[in-house]
Write a structure and sequence with these properties.
Helices cover 31% and strands 25% of the residues. The chain is of the alpha/beta class. It folds into two domains: 133 residues, Rossmann fold, CATH 3.40.50.720; 114 residues, Dihydrodipicolinate Reductase, domain 2, CATH 3.30.360. The longest helix is centred in the last third of the chain and has 15 residues.
Length: 273
């Protein structure tokens, strides 16, 4: 880890929604080898009351200044801000933790930028399981990867794909398949919902060969993902039901995944690929 002071890496958080807020409080409570140094938010004044109560009050900075104040910058922001967060971070040879992984498909030059400057882009497991198994299978040959997602209606409202195609889901009484296509197409049509599909595709056979189904289901209360993988080393399927956070588009486990990811960076024992 670059730029450490006294063996402690500084962490900045871009975005203080449910995930960023939970992460800031976890860092303040203590994650070994890490210290919260800075935060950024669209309306920072809204967050000052609770930020001021932290044991170590972070600096409130514009997004483009976070990389100057940290060794690790965690992106918890809208996908359109990913480039403005990641580019200065990896250009400085630092680590960017990216949650809006779907945005990397339109900004894949950021990977080359990180390579040239010695930076790193880290994508947490997030609301998915089995990425280790998919990553391992990809060392051999993966024949197919399919993900079927079922979400409560509230978690899909306003998605660009639904708006563009005039698909009405409010008031439906039975499950409705609202999308079937590639992970790349899913990321464009559901940018706040389908980062998991992109992470799955990047771990496996890519966004144009990974297929995705999305269902709006009035009977479910949790974001549900089922993944089916067929490869030359194994055939496996897995499913997870994620409890939504305060934001119905995001699972509670996503925030916990980021915390676990940061703990791994300094852990003396690391479990998983």
């Amino acid at each position: 880890m670059t730029g450490r002071s006294n063996g402690v890496a500084r962490v900045a958080i871009a975005g203080l929604g449910p995930i960023g807020t939970r992460l800031a409080k976890a860092l303040d409570q203590g994650i070994e080898g890490l210290r919260l140094s800075a935060v950024s938010a669209a309306n920072i004044d809204k967050h000052r009351p609770w930020l001021s109560k932290l044991g170590n009050v972070p600096a409130a900075l514009p997004i483009d200044q976070l990389a100057d104040a940290a060794d690790i910058v965690v992106e918890c922001a809208p996908s359109q801000l990913v480039r403005s967060i990641v580019a200065p971070t990896v250009s400085a040879g630092k680590t960017a933790v990216v949650l809006s992984v779907g945005a990397l498909l339109d900004n894949d030059d950021l990977i080359d930028l990180a390579r040239r400057h010695g930076g790193r882009i880290v994508v947490p497991t997030g609301a998915l399981i089995g990425l280790d198994a998919v990553t391992a299978a990809a060392v051999g040959t993966i024949h197919s990867v399919r993900m079927i997602t079922r979400k409560p209606v509230a978690g899909l409202l306003g998605a660009p794909h639904l708006v563009r195609h005039g698909i009405e889901i409010e008031g439906i009484s039975r499950p409705l398949k609202v999308f079937e296509g590639t992970a790349r197409e899913a990321a464009k049509g559901f940018p706040a919902n389908l980062n998991v599909a992109v992470a799955l595709s990047l771990a496996g056979i890519g966004p144009d060969r990974t297929t995705v189904e999305i269902w709006a289901d009035p009977a479910v209360t949790r974001n549900t993902h089922r993944i089916e993988v067929d490869s030359d080393s194994a055939r496996f399927s897995m499913s997870i039901e994620n409890i939504p956070s305060e934001n119905p588009k995001t699972g509670l486990i996503t925030a916990l995944s980021v915390i676990a990811c940061l703990r791994k960076l300094n852990a003396p024992l690391r479990i998983g690929t």
